[in-house]
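yo

u said u wanted the structure for the complex thing, so here. seqs first:
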Amino acid sequence: MAAKYVYFFGNGKAEGKAELKNLLGGKGANLAEMTSIGLPVPAGFTITTEVCTEFYKNNQNYPQGLKAEVEANLKQVEELMGKRFGDPKNPLLVSVRSGARASMPGMMDTILNLGLNDTTVQGVIAQSGDERFAYDAYRRFVQMYSDVVMGMSKEILEHLLEGKKEERGVHLDTELTAVDWKELVGKFKAKIKETLGQAFPEDPQEQLWGAIGAVFGSWMNQRAITYRKLNNIPADWGTAVNVQSMVFGNMGNDCATGVAFTRDPSTGEDYFYGEYLVNAQGEDVVAGIRTPQPINKAKKKDGDLPAMEDVLPECYAQLAKIRGILEKHYKDMQDIEFTIEKGKLYMLQTRNGKRTAPAAIKIAVDMVREGLIDEKAAVLRVAPNQLDQLLHPSLDPKAAKKVIAKGLPASPGAVCGEVVFTADEAEAAAKTGHKVILVRVETSPEDIHGMHAAQGILTARGGMTSHAAVVARGMGKCCVAGCGDIKVDYKAEQFVAKDGTVVKKGDRITLDGSNGEVMLGEVPTVAPQMTGDFRTLMVWVDKFRRLKVRTNADTPQDSKVAREFGAEGIGLCRTEHMFFEADRIAAVREMILAEDIEGRKKALTKILPMQKSDFIGIFREMKGLPVTIRLLDPPLHEFLPHEEKDIESLATTMGVTVQTLKHKVEFLHEFNPMLGHRGCRLGLTFPEIYDMQVQAIMEAACELNKNEGFSIIPEIMIPLVAVVKELKTLKDNAIRVCDEVIGRYGVKVEYLIGTMIELPRAALTADELATEAEFFSFGTNDLTQTTFGLSRDDAGKFLPFYVENGLLEEDPFVTLDQSGVGQLVRMGCEKGRATRPNIKLGICGEHGGDPASVIFCHKVGLDYVSCSPFRVPIARLAAAHAALEEKK
Amino acid sequence: MAAKYVYFFGNGKAEGKAELKNLLGGKGANLAEMTSIGLPVPAGFTITTEVCTEFYKNNQNYPQGLKAEVEANLKQVEELMGKRFGDPKNPLLVSVRSGARASMPGMMDTILNLGLNDTTVQGVIAQSGDERFAYDAYRRFVQMYSDVVMGMSKEILEHLLEGKKEERGVHLDTELTAVDWKELVGKFKAKIKETLGQAFPEDPQEQLWGAIGAVFGSWMNQRAITYRKLNNIPADWGTAVNVQSMVFGNMGNDCATGVAFTRDPSTGEDYFYGEYLVNAQGEDVVAGIRTPQPINKAKKKDGDLPAMEDVLPECYAQLAKIRGILEKHYKDMQDIEFTIEKGKLYMLQTRNGKRTAPAAIKIAVDMVREGLIDEKAAVLRVAPNQLDQLLHPSLDPKAAKKVIAKGLPASPGAVCGEVVFTADEAEAAAKTGHKVILVRVETSPEDIHGMHAAQGILTARGGMTSHAAVVARGMGKCCVAGCGDIKVDYKAEQFVAKDGTVVKKGDRITLDGSNGEVMLGEVPTVAPQMTGDFRTLMVWVDKFRRLKVRTNADTPQDSKVAREFGAEGIGLCRTEHMFFEADRIAAVREMILAEDIEGRKKALTKILPMQKSDFIGIFREMKGLPVTIRLLDPPLHEFLPHEEKDIESLATTMGVTVQTLKHKVEFLHEFNPMLGHRGCRLGLTFPEIYDMQVQAIMEAACELNKNEGFSIIPEIMIPLVAVVKELKTLKDNAIRVCDEVIGRYGVKVEYLIGTMIELPRAALTADELATEAEFFSFGTNDLTQTTFGLSRDDAGKFLPFYVENGLLEEDPFVTLDQSGVGQLVRMGCEKGRATRPNIKLGICGEHGGDPASVIFCHKVGLDYVSCSPFRVPIARLAAAHAALEEKK
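structre next:
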């Protein structure tokens, strides 16, 4: 049986359905679904994603039989609409749009009004009775088609259009007449022929196949490839093509076009949120060129143009009813597009709406309350990575701030950065570690890479559903859009705010994406506040997950924050950060400069009480939860200055000669410190350092257990172990010190001694290490560095190139490389458990807070993940997803 | 049944035999064997190595039953000798010696003349009729026993002895009388009591058990531990204890003691080589205090004292006969010890003699000719590592040299270094990269670590069988011994040669271990000459091995040397060394400083013809054998200077500002260059570099194949691959360039493209890499660095500590870490072959020349190993050993 390549929809009947999203793309599947449930959808058909895949597999040729199927479906549309494609009297016009499995806003090309030519335009004039509309539609088609299908630079025709406006002495497109448009169509076509050496196609069939080819072609354009890369969409998914009969929102003042969300995508509020434009075509709303009007009165603000609820009350009532039908049907918040043609409402699209993290949480929790979904579905409805925005700091309400402008709160968050005016600058600056705010009049798909690189985005034009707003929300990035208060001057590399403030490239500004404020300079931020809905959701999350979530914390303060975020212990407490504290760095340096063990011991004696008080503080905050403390890890030279000036200054402070200090610095210099004299190698060559640390840990535990009734079980972790004898020697030393302290305090304190698995050799010989280690913590940062032979500090020169060029799917320092590093983690788990079945297994690399990596950790059977305090909720949610997905 | 702890030998009958070496130690087993085959051996018994092992397992307690067995065996000895232990009239005196499974010369403690006390000494006087001899034996016993068993510092009694000589106005021990010795015995005992607070034991039983305990105790002394570590002898082998009735070489001029080798241990010549001393005890020969006399006339030199052949002709004849018996019996060259007591010959030891590499080869080849052993046995008789000395350079015979002294040619080789006078200095200097010559009056076991660290050893005293000579030969280290031409002054840190030359600490001298010459300054060396025996042996070697041996060579010269050593191809040709050549470094730097791809290409165009001529030279030398060329590997900053001064000078040369050059150097700086922007990462970000190199390789191959009739198949190797897409991209690029060149020359040239496996991730994903790679070469240097997380450049601060303290058995950069890195190599082979069954597999890390690692490579089924030219014969021999051992 031949494959079916085309699926029809129209007049209440559809061959497709929502479940066929993989085959029909999101847009096509939902057009079919909406048709089936009786919503008013202009008739059309969908060419499947399989055709796209075959097209690329087959050297860009269409599969056999496609042509006939398209013809048959087009005939059906003609019959339903009572129009004929190419008919001079009553022509059918169609739109041709892409529609991939996953929504890719603004990424793919669209062609409207297809079927127009010098003959059929007469039919449109006859049918609509509006010559200006007809020629406006015609010139739009010529502009779009020449750009998207024929590959002609947009600016050339725009230039002709501007010339016409100048000639006519007008400023706006709407001021041009039918005659102007007609003339322009002629000029456009002549210019196209002149520029490209080929005529604009008059034959509607040729137009149609040109457009279908262009949609498939756009699947492989640079913007689409970039978007897929950023969003992990496989190239072989392909896109569908939707051919649909046109309806027009720009045939007069009883026409309109709009987009809406069934709930507020920014806050999640159960409120019909949308924007529309009277007498406009769809792309006018999305492109952000005209600032649109609200659809209803409820949130209308002073100065807003009239709401659709007032202007087109019947259509609004019908749309509001459809909103309810869609939410009940899809059981999720929908993002819809509609057009009103001469007072009749048409639905052009519905899809699950993108939303901010607070909105995602509120909608999920509300929908459970409303009985639409259950708790599991609610948990799965919130993407773990999305929580990141929620957990970012917001502006300190008590801080002084100079607001220079206000725009739309398009995507929440509070960020500060240096102003740049192009996407390329944003990317370049970010690569050198600068935090930047991308300021644009408006953004377009060409700006994606700059938006990705920037901390936040500020646009002068465009609404809440403009390109900038939608993409920023998708990225979880702060965005203030449609900020008419600023005038951007690209040439002068500056913008001027309404109050006269001039902000030049490189100046720092702060954006508040939650209220749309733009502030001069850097405004302090505060830790995020957790909402009630968030807490409700997290209670469900904790019901479903198996994996425990700990935190990486080095101070009582970090420990406290992490506890509030739900951390169930500390997976990594790095003691070296304590060494850097101002009150002890002098003693640390004294220890390093000591000539012999006695000198070192003397200095360590000074550090001991300070380390002990650190541990007391941390243990107290963690209230008996497990705390894994890593003994000193970095090479000693990290504690000494390296610049001539600093060495001189320190020499004076320390009372040694500059020469002595310099010699020490030189002696300690390493070519590859990452692979040098650090970790347990220090503990073995200078056992007195680890002895002091173990003593501090155990004295802290003994005192709290004895005097404050805690039952703390410290987990002492030995870093950078490569061979079991290192671990055995240091474990024996630690046990000796522990037992001495326990004996001295006369309390019974249990403790565990384990190791990091952060070198390939440790994973390879985990069976041997487990003879000594009571727990393993996978240090996947260093394990990634050594497995790849890749220094994180130096990778900046080529790793971005790797990710951009698909040499690596992901930055392996962000998402665990499952096929390489993951093999070692799996091996470490299996070998460790083979030797010691009850060995505790965890991960403390930064991957512990990355959702994809957390899911991997669940699968390989770790007991816990550990991550930075602010990522604890993300890890909890990812762990719940892992458990729920597993059950499916 | 209770274990048997003691084995008797005496009067032609023995309970042990040579095969029981593990149980009885080498010395004990061979004493038993010699007894059985009818050689004159003083009666005695051996306490087994199992007793030693149990002694240490059991908290230093002897197993039950040992005491009774020792008593019974002692009784048997008494009966055979007709003397009684402790008998005042006719006392039995015994020696107590250690004897481990492997020979450990000078490492273990020995006690002679045990059984003497104030009563029994009278019996010895009565029996020997020589009071002076008796008291001399007595005082020797007291000295040895107090040192070895009681732990008293030797110097204290030596001091008393010196005092006595002064008092008596004499210089030599031999000038002291019976009365003097008697008095000294008394003083010694008083001093021992005073110093240690305990009396010297009078009871012979107490003496015996004290001595047995001391031998077992010496198994764990520092010297023994160090020796075991250097020679990979497990601690749990234990030592046996040999208790044997004393015979005396110092009872008059019809007495003597000596050591001999059945063939010359230095050259392998079939000639009875030995030294003896008249009227001396055994340790006098070995300790090197008196310079001994030759045993026969054949090699007697002017100035030598009379040969034993002349002085004791009957004993010599008997000994010469025994030499033949032993060689036929053991089928190997023997190292023997003998004593002549009043004209009667006794054999005290035989063992396989240590020998130099040339001697090992000559003896093995001669013994095949003599029909004693077969070719396989001959191949196994030569230790691969031993060849190293043979393959070291010797002095250039045409070079001018200033010979300042001449000593004994104790261990061959030619070395140059800075003079140091203590073992500690030698070790310290070697650690900082200095090459040193250790100069001592004589060496003792305490000097082992310094001998190990030095390039060569020069001693003023001692013969060819002195401590220095034996140990140096074992280590394969150049040694000139017994050089009476120099006067060493430790205090002034200098020595004065006979010609008056003063050589101070830090001055450079050259030693020639083949003729005993000591030269001032550095004398140039030449590549070693291969002897006919060597060639004969290597023909046999090549018959038995399966593994191919290639070489690492970067120049035509290296390639030529390697071919002469039998290399079967080049396994690693590093192109970066070519970049450093004076005539091209300027162009390389120009390329690095270029602002854009055009500038880089321009500079590369200059390098292309030079690289091409390099490859032509190498291909010509290799005459069509496979050549694996690694594309550029090191980070670009390695080609730029880093010191302020050098940057300034280069800036002038390059015609750029200092600032520009500094910026470039700073921009290229890396924190961990080992893990940085190098290898294929360069090839991907600067594809024009690899394109140029591939072009140079292929043009060279095309020209030679076309014009000179070669059939060269270049193997292009892409370094530092971590993910398959790197390899795929670079392979596609290389194929494009290759095909372009081949097309241009119009010749058919095959080529292979493969990769190094030098990162853990490459080994872990070798199945994926093999989809692209036509060969793998395991780069075990970098693989060891990344698997251990250990920078070779920085490990100097702790790796020696690791090896010394047994944290690592071996330096993993010398011998492949089989349990860690080896797992990855094995995995890489298995996964690679699973994807591509005929994939070529080799190794090009320095482990390719290490015998233990070569055997591992054979076992995992590699096709070849590649090593430095001078190690090619070592690798060939090791490969043959691997194949022969496998068949066993």
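Chain B is about 45% helix and 15% strand. The longest strand of chain B covers residues 344-352.
cya
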